[in-house]
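Notes from hallway chat w/ T.B., transcribed later so I don't forget. T.B. wanted the structure written out for a chain they're using in a teaching module, and asked if we could keep both sequence and structure tokens in one place. Agreed to drop them here.
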Amino acid sequence: MEANNKNIDILAYVAYGDAVGFLKQNDNNSNNEGLHPFSYSYSEDLKLKADTGQWSYITQLMLINCKCLVDNKDNRHVLIDYKRMIEEIKLWKYYRYGTPLNYIYKLKLGNQYYKDDFYWNDKRGEAFSRIIPIALANKNFNAAQEEVYKNIIYINRHPQVVLTGLLLLKTIFFLIKNKLIEKKQLIDELKNYLIHLQLLELEEYVNGQLPSNYKIRFEQEKINYLIDLDRLKDSDTYSFDTYDSKNILITSLNNLLNIHTDIGYMSNLLKCKEKEVYAITYGLLALIKQADKIVINQIKDISFIRSMGEYVFKLREYEVGRILFEKRDNEIDLFSLNKGAMLKHPLLNNIRIKDKVQFSNYIELTVESKSGEYKFIIQKNQDSF
């Protein structure tokens, strides 16, 4: 896959879809006339304003994955650096847009999260689309499958979420190789992948022990997916009761297939209020070069997101030579800094504290960096979540 402008813009289209969905989620009066400022819930007791084109944690966590990618030319493999990942997530909790429960619980519980029921039983798997850069950065499917599996189970272990991440990966590889989409061909490709997918093979990538009933659950979720993919194959519509990870992915595939044959179907997409459906749909449309008429320039930090798309394709060609992250002993407390302070941050690089404002129940820090402007929030006298 050549790194032309449209391919580089895939991440920007994901962010645009996320911004559209984030707006619709938080503004019941939103129409289809474009993006505009809105308010969102930072926590249960704190509502904040968001600028035009602001995207959610879906894009933020996708960009964090980009920052954690390391190219290994000798092994022809682009992998995730998890030492950097945990530090990025610890920092992200202060500038996040939205509250994905899987990441929140991971931060609260630490390693105990992996023993918690939520880790094993959550079917939503919020922000599973963060695996898109991993798929784009790797030319070898087995290398990409290994990294996607590791990245999904870092936060969620329900078999449905695992399969959803892997099927999104398989979809991306299929679309990279096939310029024209045939509905039957795509669905048959996904079904064939599922039929031959073995849990034992995936577990070779990681250390650890699974619950005794996990393999049965895994096989049952494969069957559930095969049934629903057949439903999609036989109909132009897809109905369901709840937005779990499977229904989000299949809805996104249904949108892609319908828009591919009838651009007028876009009006049906805009009735949805699940932001990850928008993010995936627009990203896949960009991948097959059917997003030309969608104007994305309104989204926040579009130049930086485009530069990250460029960076992912340099990683794909093993042109970066990224080294693994080494944590410093002395951590920087950003909230202890005053307006005008300048320093080099281990994750954000060179930064400047543009503003610091004390509100009655929280402190807001505006930080300027090469990657854009961040709003860091810490609530007073309570957990930052």
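Follow-up for T.B.: The CA atoms of residues 163 and 222 lie 7 Å apart. Might be a good example for the class.
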